[in-house]
Amino acid sequence: SPTPHADYYFEDGNLIVLVENTLFKLFRSTFTRHSVVFRDLFSLPTGQDGQKAEGQDDTNPLTFSGISATDFERLLWVLYPPNYGIHKAKSADEWHSILSLASRWEFTDVRALAIRQLQTLDMPPVDRILLAQEFDIGGRWALAAYTALCERPTPLSLAEATRLGLETATTIAQLREQIR
To answer: What global pTM score does this model have?
Structure first.
């Protein structure tokens, strides 16, 4: 049977969510306030014939499949910060989790925060390019990553080219040729 999360099963919460085998008891208003997707979801009619709507108790939780409890918890770090003004997420992997769910569920402000935080981290140019492509992040940050790969003395390694894909790797190789 599902286990209540140690930190995110609030006694007075009004939205029960099941991710993998973990129950979260949260506040519906947090989700409707920050996410268009949840605002639309919770505006749909529910609970016909005296049935309780999904997410109202532990026996009928709102179930999210295709995501990990760890990634969901990381999103909750931002929505319910343990300490105001201090982000629990520190690594690129943690902010990637947050960015992924914020993008999927249209948490616009959280997405913008995750992008800003990722931009402050020291990441290899290939990782920056892949993030920019995956989440449609434009601007100087992505451009600087392309520039770094084009201006460095060594060409792309086979591993880097494989990760970037044929089109991006070829474009970088062509730009490197033009610079020389």
So the answer is: 0.89
